[in-house]
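Support request from a user on the community tier.

User writes: "When I paste my structure tokens into the form, the page sometimes reloads and wipes my input. The last time it worked, I copied everything first. Here is what I submitted, just in case something in the input itself triggers the reload:"
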């Protein structure tokens, strides 16, 4: 009887354990339920998955997915398509104690990672953890790859960044024997906040305006490249905190060389960044310097920030991207206000989930113009110049409506 109970218990345990893991077991769309062992598409930053050997999942254009750790088998091709976004783990898991709560991508052997770009925008793969590679991962990055932890490659790893693509590594980038890094074309970058270290017979190639930057560089077989790396900034940290109705940014440098200023950039999705402020540097110094900036207009939800340093001779460098969530009330604004009566800029602190419109009304309530707007920033040009006076702009979407007064000179 006791043995029977043990067998039953063991069978139940096996059934339960199998239910914890979901496997991508064919080739095709990541978001097709029948391609998964469970029959449904997994989601959520605590849901860990695996991709079986010789399977080729694709996150189709425009898709947005969040997942836990991903284990990738041998000879797998994982593709993030144009305008698609995949997030592995979360900032809270990455910063949690103990550190094993963070999620990562682990690759077995002879796999390929494609992050594409095109008319629909850049693809984005964001990993709140590490990218750990066995033997021979080929990475073709034309969109954006953000690794908040470390990038660890074994032997014969190949990384190609082209077409304005970017790889940002918050920790260290290490590679084994015969590692190859190629960065081609203006805007194509590999930015490593920690150390870049490659082993025997490795090769680093930059051309056409492509660049690689790191806090330190060592490469057996490409020491000449590392010997030419002189960075204007040694960054100690970059972080963001919530502060009532704003987000506060803090960073510090240990040294600066021929340094002009920081350009602080912001994004609502981690792909397209816009400059929000410039902060003057300290030229050449070996002393610590602390900086801060308040963002008075954070987006509702995720806010991504990155630092761009600009040297006196025009050399630029991008540093680690930080992300922070912000809770607050939705709002929209019209600028300039007062206006010239022809061009208006409409800005919201959120991205509408449905179609959105802005209507311009006279003081008597007559509609003068009507526009459909997209995203969180739009420029509107009226068909006629408005006479001097008071007008009203009404923002309308499925989940938000508000009215602002507009003065025309």
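"...and here is what came back when it finally went through:"
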């Amino acid at each position: 009887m006791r043995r029977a109970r043990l067998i039953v218990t063991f069978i139940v345990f096996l059934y339960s354990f199998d239910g914890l893991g979901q496997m991508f077991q064919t080739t095709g769309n990541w978001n097709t339920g029948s391609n998964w062992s469970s029959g449904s598409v997994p989601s959520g930053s605590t849901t860990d998955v695996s991709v079986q050997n010789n399977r080729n999942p694709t996150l189709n254009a425009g898709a947005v997915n969040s997942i836990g750790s991903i284990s990738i088998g041998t000879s797998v091709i994982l593709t993030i398509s144009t305008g698609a976004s995949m997030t592995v783990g979360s900032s809270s898991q990455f910063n949690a104690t103990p550190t094993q709560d963070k999620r990562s991508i682990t690759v077995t052997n002879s796999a390929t990672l494609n992050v594409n770009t095109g008319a629909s925008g850049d693809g984005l793969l964001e990993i709140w953890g590490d990218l750990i590679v066995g033997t021979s991962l080929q990475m073709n990055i034309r969109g954006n790859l953000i690794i908040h932890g470390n990038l660890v490659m074994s032997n014969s790893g190949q990384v190609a960044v082209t077409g304005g693509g970017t790889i940002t590594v918050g920790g260290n980038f290490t590679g084994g024997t015969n590692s190859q890094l190629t960065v081609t074309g203006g805007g194509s970058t590999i930015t490593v906040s920690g150390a870049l270290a490659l082993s025997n017979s490795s090769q680093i190639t930059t051309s056409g305006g492509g660049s690689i930057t790191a806090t330190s560089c060592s490469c057996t077989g490409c020491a000449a490249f590392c010997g030419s790396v002189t960075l204007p900034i040694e960054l100690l940290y970059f972080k963001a905190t919530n502060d009532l109705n704003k987000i506060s940014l803090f960073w510090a440098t240990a040294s600066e060389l021929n340094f002009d200023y920081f350009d602080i950039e912001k994004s609502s999705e981690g792909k397209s960044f816009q400059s929000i402020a410039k902060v003057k540097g300290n030229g050449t110094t070996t002393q610590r310097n602390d900086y801060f900036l308040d963002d008075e207009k954070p987006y509702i939800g995720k806010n991504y920030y990155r630092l761009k340093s600009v040297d006196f001779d025009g050399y630029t460098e991008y540093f680690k991207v930080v992300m922070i969530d912000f809770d607050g009330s939705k709002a929209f604004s019209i600028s300039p206000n007062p206006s010239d009566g022809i061009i208006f800029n409409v800005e919201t602190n959120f991205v509408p989930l449905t179609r959105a419109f802005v209507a311009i009304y006279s003081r008597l309530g007559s509609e003068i113009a009507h526009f459909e707007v997209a995203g969180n920033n739009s420029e509107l040009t009226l068909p006629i110049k408005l006479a001097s006076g008071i007008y009203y702009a009404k923002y309308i979407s499925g989940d938000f409506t508000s009215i602002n007064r507009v003065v025309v000179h």
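Agent notes: The reload is a front-end session timeout and is unrelated to the input. The helical segments are 2-20, 91-94, 223-227. The CA atoms of residues 272 and 320 lie 15 Å apart. Escalated to web team.
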